[in-house]
Design a protein that fits this description.
By secondary structure, this protein is α/β, with parallel strands linked by helices. It is built from 10 helices and 8 strands. Helix 5 packs across helix 6.
Length: about 250
Amino acid sequence: MAPNGFQALEKMMNEGESIAERVERVRARVAAACARAGRDSASVRIVAVSKTHPPESVEAAAAAGLTIFGESRVQEAAAKIPHCSGLLEWHLVGHLQSNKARAAVLLFSTIHSVDSADLLRRLDRIAEEEGRRLRVLLEVNVSGEGSKFGMRPEMLAGVLKAAEGLSRIEVAGLMTVPPICEEAERARGFFGALRALRDRARAETGFELPELSMGMSHDFEPAIEAGATLVRIGTAIFGPRPKRPPEEGERT
């Protein structure tokens, strides 16, 4: 059984580890979760969520071997990415407002948070205009929480239908954010629900949907055991986030 996520985080922060040491600790926990699930650890990739942290922290994590970095705000990413290594892969993991879609297409290779057919079509049109190709994950609100973004599970079939005629977008999988729970194990059912939804969609459509983006610093181990292929790790790598004002339209 995975340890209590918040207890593991507190221990890590109290020890005052460097970013490189935290990366190694996270990798060890990923490998252990994969072993419990009978999975190859290479099947899980870490998305280092660097929101509110400076380019210097990104470079430290990159020096420790991480290559995929996640940002939640388009505006922050636009200011940060030019100051980081050009060899890194950038993912948008936060909610995308439609008026920032063009900037997102230009900044990111993968967007984890597409939550409607309209946004999917808008991204495809912009990618065509900009000569880009884009991987997206469809965000599903499997918990039904009103404070969470994401489409309802019953909307997924319609959004996948809308994706069939798109030429610049690859729908690569699904993403979810479960309720914050003191015990990481309580999130396991939500991760299992997303995997089951993906498996049904795969059986009923022509989409393979190989990616499952689920699990964060406090609950990534049960997410891996439930089938996550992308885990979004911020605090466990970079430490506590400094406070910053919310972006327009952002929920806090």
